[in-house]
């Protein structure tokens, strides 16, 4: 019978095949514990590696989502806040929870959607509440090159906080350039109403003085200035048939070239940005309710806004921005505009439904009549135009001037 090997301390040798790798043998007690754990350690290391790989994938995905423009933290907190607010009917007390305070707000205002009135209010509110109102002197350059986007984002991000920045500009993704994504707000209106307001404002200005339209379209000939709106639409003048009738959606879609092309891609991207980056997109036809919700969501900026808006002196100033000499097109012309703006209307109705849902959460009833039926487009074909949009074309007013210089 073979004798068991002895180790120096007596007893059976725990290393029958030699000392373990990594140095001198441990004590007997420690070694027994280590042997008993070996199967577990072999499984644990494999499991540990799998967990670490999963964690790495999760972290990279989260980082990619943030760099791709994930929702600002304030909007995530707000969604949780609204999710806890329920009502049995359209009335109820406002929630008592205090909303978080965003120190960076951007109002990339859509042209001819009441933005002059809102900016007048913001000037008063900024003095009253002490926030930094940052406005831009550039009114007509909404589409920017990559370098222009980077420069504008840099300038906005370095403004003294809390700030509210306002400019006519298509949606900017701050996260794409390494900045903190601000909270966006905006207001839109019925697309045909917006188009008509813009059409006559370019020709005749507003009540602040009819001469201000001469600055915007100085090269417009008299016969063009007094061109009947029905003739412009029915005879397919470029101003009334160009893809620039696709006007509202790019403010929410962004700076990508495809955002300028009327179609499903731009529409869906605009909806996605509304959901992820906009605190509120209101409807001009219900401006008082828009101001009520802004006061609720952003009290540090908009507290007391409704009382200022209803003040007779402010109303007098606001009425000065109303476009003059507007006329209503014929039903046939309006129907053609509906067809040319079908994506605009799809977006408008989507925003309107979201806005009404938000109002119900806060117990606000819509004091408007029954919603009209959505227009039926009798020519469901893509827009045709003699004026394709080029990547180098940046200025809407320059485009209009070029038309009237021919």
UniProtKB/TrEMBL annotation:
Q: Which residue stretches belong to region Disordered?
A: 386-406
- The transmembrane residues are 48-67
GO CC annotations, alphabetized: Golgi membrane
Pfam family example for this protein?
A: Sulfotransfer_2
In terms of InterPro entries, this protein maps to: Heparan_SO4_2-O-STrfase, P-loop_NTPase, Sulfotransferase
Annotated compartments: Golgi apparatus membrane
What Gene Ontology terms describe what this protein does at the molecular function level? sulfotransferase activity
Mind telling me which Gene3D superfamilies this protein's record contains? Answer: P-loop containing nucleotide triphosphate hydrolases
The record's keywords, sorted A to Z, are: Glycoprotein, Golgi apparatus, Membrane, Signal-anchor, Transferase, Transmembrane, Transmembrane helix
Predominantly, its location class is Golgi
* Record field: compositional bias (Acidic residues): 386-399
Q: How does it sit in the membrane?
A: Single-pass type II membrane protein
Family statement: Belongs to the sulfotransferase 3 family.
- Which protein are we looking at? Uronyl 2-sulfotransferase
């Amino acid at each position: 019978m073979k004798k068991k090997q002895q180790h120096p301390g007596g007893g059976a040798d725990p290393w029958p095949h030699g000392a373990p790798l990594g140095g001198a043998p441990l004590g007997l007690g420690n070694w027994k514990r280590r042997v008993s754990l070996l199967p577990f350690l072999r499984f644990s290391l494999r499991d540990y590696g799998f967990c670490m790989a999963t964690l790495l994938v999760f972290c990279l995905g989260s980082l990619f989502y943030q760099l791709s423009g994930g929702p600002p933290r304030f909007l995530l907190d707000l969604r949780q806040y609204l999710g806890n607010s329920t009502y049995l009917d359209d009335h109820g007390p406002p929630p008592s929870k205090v909303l978080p305070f965003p120190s960076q707000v951007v109002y990339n205002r859509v042209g001819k959607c009441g933005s002059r009135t809102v900016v007048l209010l913001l000037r008063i509110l900024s003095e009253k509440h002490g926030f930094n109102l940052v406005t831009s002197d550039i009114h007509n350059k909404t589409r920017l090159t990559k370098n222009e986007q980077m420069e504008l984002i840099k300038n906005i991000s370095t403004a003294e906080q809390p700030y509210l920045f306002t400019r006519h500009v298509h949606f900017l993704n701050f996260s794409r350039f390494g900045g903190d994504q601000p909270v966006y707000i905006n207001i839109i209106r019925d697309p045909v109403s917006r188009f008509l307001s813009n059409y006559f404002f370019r020709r005749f200005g507003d009540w602040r003085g009819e001469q201000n339209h001469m600055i915007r379209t100085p090269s417009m000939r008299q016969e063009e200035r007094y061109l009947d709106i029905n003739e412009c639409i029915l005879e397919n003048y470029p101003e009334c048939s160009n893809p620039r009738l696709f006007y509202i959606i790019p403010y929410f879609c962004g700076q990508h070239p495809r955002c300028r092309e009327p179609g499903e891609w731009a529409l869906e991207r605009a909806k996605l940005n509304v959901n992820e980056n906009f605190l509120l997109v209101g409807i001009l036809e219900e401006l008082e309710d828009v101001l009520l919700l802004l006061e609720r969501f952003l009290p540090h900026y908009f507290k007391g806004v409704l009382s200022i808006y209803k003040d007779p002196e402010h109303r007098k100033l606001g009425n000065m921005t109303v476009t003059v000499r507007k006329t209503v097109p014929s039903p046939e012309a309006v129907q053609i505009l509906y067809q040319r703006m079908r994506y605009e209307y799809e977006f408008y109705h989507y925003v309107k439904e979201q806005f009404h849902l938000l109002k119900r959460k806060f117990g606000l009833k819509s004091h408007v009549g029954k919603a009209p039926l959505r227009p039926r487009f009798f020519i469901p074909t893509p827009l045709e135009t003699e004026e394709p949009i080029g990547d180098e074309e940046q200025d809407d007013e320059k485009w209009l001037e070029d038309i009237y210089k021919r």
